[in-house]
Amino acid sequence: MIDRFQIAKNWLPRYTGMPLDKFGDYILLTNFGNYIKRFAEKFNCEIYGETKPMQAVTNNKGLTIINFGIGSPNAATVMDLLVAVKPKGVLFLGKCGGLKKSTELGYFILPIAAIRGEGTSHDYFPPEVPALPSFKLHKFVSEKILERGYEYRTGVVYTANRRVWEHDQKFHERLQQMTCIAIDMETATIFIVGHHNEISRGALLLVSDVPITPEGVKTEKSDELVTQKWAEVHLEIGIEAMTEIGEQGEHIKHFRY
Prior knowledge:
The two termini are 27 Å apart. By secondary structure, the chain is α/β, with parallel strands linked by helices. A five-stranded mixed beta barrel has the order 4-7-6-5-8. It has helices spanning 4-16, 33-43, 72-81, 135-147, 169-177, 187-196, 220-248; strands at 26-30, 55-58, 63-67, 89-98, 108-117, 152-160, 182-184, 201-209. It has a single domain, classed as Nucleoside phosphorylase domain (Rossmann fold, 3-Layer(aba) Sandwich).
């Protein structure tokens, strides 16, 4: 197998346990097992890949959700493997740390861009290439958020390649200088690899902690509270947006250079 499409067609079922013909045209990505379980229970459908690195479910409306794990290498892997099914749109449902006083717990963020601090994306494009979402996809998601009566923030997200940075004051200062609204570990990679593979992509992030303050650092208990309070609506907005965009949304066309 020397062709990347042949590799992807072999590896996507290998990583997820789901046959290629079971994948839908629109994809939700997450790194939370409970989102997969909620989705499967909601639509009474089968979870594939419970013994695999990734788990996947497709409902009766042709919407697929994949739990790809944590971190930028996993994000790049799933976006590379998705070329096997050529999805029409991919939306990442992730959590992020808020870096502004205005970014309260439970707020949604639709990033206008992501800073490529993770390093993985440098294997796809030079550092000068910005990590951007597909505008029409984000426009449609924003409409669905507002229809439900929720607020959201826009801004630049910093995607990091490290954990346990909360104690590092020099890193805090760098984040402040870059005027980032939030920090995560996957968004920039998803945007860049999506761009590389001509996949329309977006990210709807849920602010789960405020790590710039000692009392705001995420713990198991605090994360459970955020999940209990906001995970369901986070998932619901993603489902609604990606289910309806094919019927009601503007046509998304990837520009070829």
